[in-house]
Amino acid sequence: MKLTDISPAIALTPLDGRYHAQTARLVEFLSEPALNRERMRVEVEWMVMLANGYAGNGWQPLVPGVRPLDEEEQAYLRAIPERFGAEGIARHAAHEAVTHHDVKAVEYYIDDELDRAAEALGRPTQLSGLKTLVHFACTSEDINNLSTARCVKNAIEQVWLPDAESIVETLTIRADEYRELPLLSLTHGQPATPTTLGKELAVYVYRLGRQVRHVKNQEYLGKINGATGTFGAHLAACPDVDWTEVSRVFVTERMGLDWNPLTTQIESHDWQAELYGTISHTNRILHNLCVDIWMYISRGVFVQVPVKGATGSSTMPHKVNPIRFENAEANLELSCSLLDTLSATLVESRWQRDLTDSTTQRNIGSALGYAVLALNNLLGGLNSIHPDEQAMRAELDANWEVLGEPIQTAMRACELAGLPGMEQPYEKVKELMRGKRIGREDVEEFIDSLAFDEQTAARLKALTPSGYVGAAADLVSFMR
Q1: Catalytic sites, residue numbers
Q2: For burial by CB atoms within 10 Å, which of 23, 99, 217, 360 has the most?
Q3: Which residues constitute the domain of residue 447?
Q4: Domain Adenylosuccinate lyase PurB C-terminal spans what residues (predicted)?
Q5: What angle, 0 to 180 degrees and rounded to 10, lies between the N-to-C axes of helices 364-382 and 270-299?
Q6: Residue 434 pLDDT more than 90?
Q7: CA 186 to CA 192: how far, in whole Å?
Q8: What whole-number distance in Å separates Cα of residue 279 and Cα of residue 135?
C-alpha cells in the first residue's frame, strides 16, 4: 500500500496532520479556499460599487449603461462567496485546471453564478448580462492584495491576538498572585540579588504587552488602481470618474483596510513585513519565556502537575518532562524562520511585478500556524505548573552570600558619612563571601566587626535572603 494512494489524502505537514486540532481555526482565513472566497467577496463588492456608486458621487453608477442593482440583486451577489463550499471548491478547481490562473478561475466562477441568477431570483435580472462587469478594470493583484490583507487581518484579530492575549492574561494573574513570593535570582547562572517570582513574570507581561499593542495598531494596506498603479484602464474606459476617490472609498469603507495610493502593479507589502516582524519579535520573547520556565522547572522553582495516564519517559517512569514548553520553543523557531523569510522577501519586487510574492504568501498560514501551535502549547504548560514555595525558601536559605551586596553598599554610604573603618567595602565583603557558603552567623559576625551605627547595624542584621527583594512586589504594578 502506497501512502499516496490513501483517500482522503494524508497531510504532509504536521499543521494539517498531527496538530490539526490546534491550528484548524486558521483554515477559515489562511487556506487556499479561504483566499478564493475572499477574492469572490472583493470581486462582487467591486461590482456592487461600480453599479451603485457611493455617497460621494450621489449613488450613481460608475460605468455607463449599468443600472443600479436592487437589494435582491446585491444580496445575490454577496451570497456567492458565502455559499462557497465543497462543491464550489471543486468547481473553482475545474476552472483553474483550464485557465492555469487562480484569479481568472474566480472570475469564471462568478460568471457561472450570474448565469443562475434569474432562476435563483425567480425573475428576470440584469445580473445575467453583467459578466463584463466582473473584474472590470482590475489586474489580478487588485483582487489579490485586498483578499490577502483581509485574510491576514481576520486571522490575526480572530485567532492570533486572542491566543496571545490569553498568554498575557495568564501571566498577569500569576504575576499578581506571586508578587511577594521571594525567588533567588541567578545572573550568569550564579546566585544573585533575590527578587520575587511575580516580578519576574511581570517582566514578560510588560514585554509581551508592548508587542500586542503594536499588532493591535497595525495597518493593513490595500490598493485597487490597475496594472501599474496608474488607473490607466479606468480612465480610458470612464474618463469622467474620480477613480482615485473611488479607490480610496472602496479600500477603506468597503474592504475595511488602509488605502495605499502609490503602488506598482502590486501593493508593496511593507505592512506585511512590519506585522510579521512584530509577531516574530513576539515569538522570540515567548521563546525566552519558555526557556526560563524550563530552567525554573529543572531547578525546582516550578513543579509540574502530572497528566493522568501520560508517559514522561519510555524507560524512566518517574519523569514528568516539560514537553509543552519544549514544543512551544521548537514551533516558535519554525514560525520565526518563516516570518523572517516573508518579511525579507515580500518587500522586494522586480520593477512592476514578479511572482515571488505569490508563492511566498501561500506560506502565511504555516508561519502563523506554528505560532498559534506554540501559543497553545505554552498556555497548556503555564496551566500545568505551580511554584514549590518550600524549595524556593530552601534555595534562598542556602545562599546568604547574596547579602554581600546590601552590606557593602551600606558600608559605602557610611564611609561617605564619615564613619571609620568602612574603606574598601567591596573588597572586604568579597574576601568574606566570594566563592564561599556562609550563613546567618557569618553575616552577623561580619556586621558586628564593623563600626556601623546602631540603626544601620540593626537594619542589616534583620535582612535575610528571603527578605532582600527591594521593591520587587511594588514593581509588578507597572506591568500593565
Answers
A1: 188, 313
A2: 23
A3: 400-464
A4: 349-469
A5: 30
A6: no
A7: 5
A8: 34
